[in-house]
């Protein structure tokens, strides 16, 4: 009987050893899989990093300066960090100059000292979308259908003139019927 018990013990021991080996292999395999998943996640994180963090503020500023105003405005919405870069006066001052180039009228509010250039640009865009007020259409004989088109000339020194013989706006001295109030930004 002892021999039989010994054989059973040996057999049980072999079975236990086999089970332990299998469990050990499973643990190793799980560990390798965890490490692979971790590496994959790290690789994905490297690939999906914020370009602002990867390239830095200066490079992103250079890139944004080459974009159109709408694209720069959209980049304001990405994150707080992007808003800080995309709202930079160095970007928007160039955009304002581009917008104002050749304009006869620049809103007074847009020229206020200390106003951020993004705000100045926004005010200029909003101001440019105004429609001609009715009093101006009533003043202009072209709109009334009684005369040819009126011409106004806005000079770089801030003065405004009209065609010779134009009596409607009060710009010509003499027979003034309705003077046009001209506001000048200071």
TrEMBL record:
Biased composition (Basic residues): 21-35
F-box domain: residues covered: 58-96
InterPro entries per record: F-box-like_dom_sf, F-box_dom
Alphabetical list of Gene3D superfamilies matching this protein: 1.20.1280.50
Transmembrane segments: none
Region (Disordered): 19-43
One Pfam match: F-box-like
SUPFAM superfamilies per the UniProt record, alphabetical: F-box domain
Family matches, as PANTHER family: F-BOX DOMAIN CONTAINING PROTEIN, OS07G0170800 PROTEIN
Protein name as it appears in the record: F-box domain-containing protein
Native organism: Citrus clementina (Clementine)
């Amino acid at each position: 009987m002892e021999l039989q018990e010994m054989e059973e013990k040996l057999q049980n021991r072999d079975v236990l050893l086999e089970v332990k080996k299998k469990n050990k292999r499973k643990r190793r395999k799980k560990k390798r899989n965890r490490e692979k998943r971790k590496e994959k996640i790290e690789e994905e994180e490297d690939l999906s990093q914020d370009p602002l963090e990867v390239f830095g503020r200066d490079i992103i500023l250079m890139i944004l300066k080459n974009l159109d105003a709408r694209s720069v405005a959209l980049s304001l919405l990405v994150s707080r960090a992007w808003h800080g870069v995309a709202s930079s006066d160095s970007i928007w001052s160039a955009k304002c100059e581009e917008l104002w180039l050749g304009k006869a009228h620049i809103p007074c509010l847009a020229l206020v000292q200390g106003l951020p250039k993004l705000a100045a640009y926004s005010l200029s865009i909003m101001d440019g979308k105004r429609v001609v007020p009715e009093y101006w259409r009533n003043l202009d004989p072209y709109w009334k259908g009684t005369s040819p088109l009126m011409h106004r000339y806005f000079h770089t020194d801030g003065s405004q003139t009209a065609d010779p013989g134009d009596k409607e706006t009060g710009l010509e001295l003499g027979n003034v019927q309705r003077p046009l109030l001209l506001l000048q930004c200071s």
